[in-house]
Design a protein that fits this description.
Length: about 450
């Protein structure tokens, strides 16, 4: 393929430093570099190593490394939502909006500055002002589907002005006003929603380019995706290799932000114990020092001894895509974050969903209620699952032949077709690059 040539249109990519946002934006950057754009990616020093897979495939991609702007409530050395509780999203955004001046100075000093800024949609306000100041185009990227985006915009729009934080209102307005918008979705999945979005934005420059396939590092494959695993990835994969039956292992994980409460941990542990399934449980503890723990996020005492070799607990960062890709894994009990849902689907791993917050509910509605391609096993951030029912659902998901499994396979086919040459998402990427180059 073509790599970003010196003559290619130059763009600046600005991620929001949270795994669920940054990973798909880097996967998108990979697609754009393949299509000949010249690209600079803005990151802070601690995040730079996470660009390794992208930079190893595209050595021509430049980085603009700017020190993380200090913020009174963000501990020194923390530069990533991975290390912060979810309620601190506004703080991280405020800190990162301080990029305005250093980025402006960088543009002014650059002999061949970018002609467009591609930013995560969370960074809309300051980057939209910067783009208009510089007289260049800004494109927003949302790592969700258009149903999720419309719901977020409409919900916030419905809240009376008194309750709608001003910053949030500004952020939506800036996104609606952006020159273009990219979503991690595909036309065959939700053409009506995409049309509605185009109407809301008043133009057609809305591109559905998903699912975005993960970049594989030439040496480490997917093992280092989003950072190094807290249990060496090779050990995790060796454990999976020892599971002989195909598609028999359940992966349990709730993304990068969610840690379960004590009662939820207990109910889930009991269900895993009672179900007799083989499993990998990826556990996130509440972000240290920033939140009272009260036993939240703790695996019940003796659990690992009781399940013995039948299960593996990973505390911290898990090599999620490498796990989902393994032939032994067949089921994923997920929070239904859009990236995770797509990763399960693409790897023929059947989704048992427990939506928690944000767009998870819209995703669950789409996959479970509208498409019949997944099963809902619990609902809501504060719900505690019934461990008997959950144990049954887990056991059944491995052995059973639910009609949803067949629907999930059909959906996977449609998703993959969209990414192939001539598919809707591949064509959307071509069109995006063409529009940017004119
Ligand atoms: N992820 C991972 N290891 C972890 C947790 C998450 O690799 O231990 C990745 C996961 O594969 C996905 C992203 O982080 O690509 C999480 O995005 P998602 O939209 O599913 O959920 P969020 O974390 O934003 O709630």
């Amino acid at each position: 393929w073509m790599t970003g040539s010196k003559d290619g249109t130059h763009i600046l990519v600005i991620p929001y430093q949270a795994p669920g946002h940054m990973l798909p934006l880097l996967d998108l950057t990979h697609q754009l570099a393949k299509r000949g754009l010249t690209i600079t990616v803005l990151v802070t020093p601690k995040i730079l190593p996470q660009l390794q897979p992208l930079l190893s495939v595209h050595p021509s991609i430049q980085t603009l490394v700017i020190p993380f702007p200090p913020h009174p409530t963000i501990p020194d050395g923390v530069e990533d939502m991975k290390e912060l509780p979810v309620f601190m999203v506004p703080e991280l955004l405020t800190a990162m909006s301080e990029f305005y001046n250093p980025v402006l100075r960088w543009f002014q000093a650059n002999p061949s500055p970018p002609v467009a800024i591609l930013t995560d949609f969370f960074h809309s306000t300051w980057s939209q002002s910067l783009a208009s100041h510089l007289g260049i185009r800004r494109i927003g990227f949302a790592p969700i589907n258009s149903g999720g985006l419309i719901e977020t915009w409409c919900n916030l729009g419905r809240v009376t002005e008194e309750y709608l934080p001003e910053s949030m209102a500004h952020s939506i307005v800036a996104n609606v006003r952006s020159w273009g918008f990219i979503l991690s979705s595909f036309t065959e999945l939700e053409s009506e929603n995409l049309e509605q979005l185009r109407k809301m934005m008043g133009h057609d420059r809305v591109w559905a380019v998903g699912p975005l396939l993960p970049i594989e590092h030439s040496k480490v494959g997917l093992n280092e995706r989003g950072g190094s695993s807290s249990v060496p990835a090779n050990e995790v994969l060796a454990w999976l290799d020892s599971c002989r039956a195909e598609k028999s292992v359940v992966f349990v994980g709730f993304g990068s932000q969610i840690s379960l409460t004590k009662p939820q941990m207990e109910a889930l542990a009991t269900a895993l114990e009672e179900s007799s399934v083989r499993f990998i449980w990826s556990v996130k503890s509440p972000m240290q020092g920033l939140k009272e723990t009260n036993g939240d996020g703790e695996v019940p005492e003796g659990f690992e001894d009781r399940v013995g070799g039948r299960g593996l607990v990973i505390r911290g960062w898990a090599p999620q895509v490498a796990i989902l890709k393994h032939r032994a894994v067949g089921i994923y009990l997920t929070h239904c974050g859009w990236n995770s849902a797509l990763e399960g689907l693409l790897n023929e791993v059947f989704l048992l969903v427990w939506p928690m917050q944000a767009d998870h509910f819209v995703n669950a509605k789409l996959l479970v209620d509208q498409l019949g391609a997944a099963i809902r096993v619990c609902d809501g951030m504060s719900s505690v699952p019934d461990s008997v029912k959950l144990a049954h659902a887990l056991a059944e998901s491995v052995t059973g032949n639910a009609s949803e499994k067949a629907e999930a396979l059909k959906l996977r086919e449609r998703a993959l077709n969209a990414t192939k040459e001539g598919g809707s998402s591949a064509l959307a990427l071509d069109d995006l690059v063409k529009e940017l180059s004119t």
